[in-house]
Amino acid sequence: QKEVEQNSGPLSVPEGAIASLNCTYSDRGSQSFFWYRQYSGKSPELIMSIYSNGDKEDGRFTAQLNKASQYVSLLIRDSQPSDSATYLCAVKISGGYNKLIFGAGTRLAVHP
Amino acid sequence: ETGVTQSPTHLIKTRGQQVTLRCSSQSGHNTVSWYQQALGQGPQFIFQYYREEENGRGNFPPRFSGLQFPNYSSELNVNALELDDSALYLCASNPGGGRLNEQFFGPGTRLTVL
Question: Residue B78 above 60 pLDDT?
Answer without folding.
Answer: yes
